[in-house]
Task: inverse folding
């Protein structure tokens, strides 16, 4: 396998960081769900530090919130690629978008269940 041409070392890391920030900016500008989940994350991340009673719980709370945002970014990327190929209805295009949406839903359910279990333990079992 041949390496892709381009910069190496710290310059490559700087370029990659710029592309990542560009992606975050694009998601914020064009994806309502990303804006909603990111805004909720800004509230939930500090709340995780308060709700969790130890480092393990806090890590789970934080990780599940961040996972939702990550999966939303991947789903948005899938949707953009599908729309770039064609906006015509095609069963595989719909399937790709539905699977991406299912991934977001599962990440949200995971987040909700982790937060719920930790909240129940903190407030109802102590």
Result:
């Amino acid at each position: 396998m041949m390496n892709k041409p381009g910069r190496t070392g710290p310059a490559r890391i700087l370029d990659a960081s710029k592309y990542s920030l560009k992606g975050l900016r694009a998601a914020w500008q064009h994806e309502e769900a990303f804006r909603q989940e990111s805004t909720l994350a800004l509230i939930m991340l500090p709340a995780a530090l308060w709700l969790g009673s130890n480092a393990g719980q806090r890590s789970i709370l934080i990780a599940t919130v961040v996972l939702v945002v990550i999966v939303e970014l991947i789903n948005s990327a899938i949707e953009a690629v599908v729309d770039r190929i064609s906006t015509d209805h095609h069963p595989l295009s719909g399937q790709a978008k539905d699977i991406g949406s299912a991934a977001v839903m599962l990440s949200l359910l995971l987040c909700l269940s982790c937060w719920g279990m930790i909240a129940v333990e903190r407030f109802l079992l102590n």
Notes: The mean pLDDT is 95. DSSP finds four helices and no strands in the chain. The chain has one domain: 32-123. Residues 91-123 form the longest helix (33 residues).
